[in-house]
Design goal:
- The protein has one domain (1-18, 45-93).
- 1% of the residues are buried.
- The chain is built from no helices and five strands.
- Helices cover 0% and strands 47% of the residues.
- The radius of gyration is 24 Å and the shape is elongated.
- A five-stranded antiparallel beta sheet has the order 1-2-3-4-5, with no helix packed on it.
- The chain has 93 residues and is mainly β.
- It has strands at 9-21, 47-60, 69-74, 77-83, 88-91.
Length: 93
């Protein structure tokens, strides 16, 4: 907001997105009954959780002679700028 003025309209909502942390598949540390390395695989542990993300859309209307801009934020970070009626998008990761 330091570079921009107050937006004409602000919409905010929360989204829940799944996040999985997959462990690597390996046969390291897997032994058979006799203590020899086995041909079985250790699939490790998989962790899954939902993450809450605050999504905000700031709309700026600069009048008839200039295009409208929508700034899309996720958890306070600018992710996308949508410009005018052509819906041209500039995306940040």
């Amino acid at each position: 907001m330091e570079k921009c003025s107050e937006p004409d309209y602000v919409d905010s909502h929360y989204e829940y997105r799944g996040y999985a942390n997959d462990a690597e598949v390996s046969n390291y540390g897997v032994f058979n009954d006799r203590g020899f390395p086995s041909n079985r695989f250790n699939y490790g542990q998989q962790n899954y959780r939902d993450i809450e993300i605050l999504v905000e859309e700031w709309t700026y209307n600069f009048g008839k002679s200039r295009l409208r801009k929508v700034l899309l934020f996720e958890n306070g970070r600018l992710k996308k700028i949508i410009s005018g009626s052509r819906r041209r998008q500039i995306q940040w990761n």
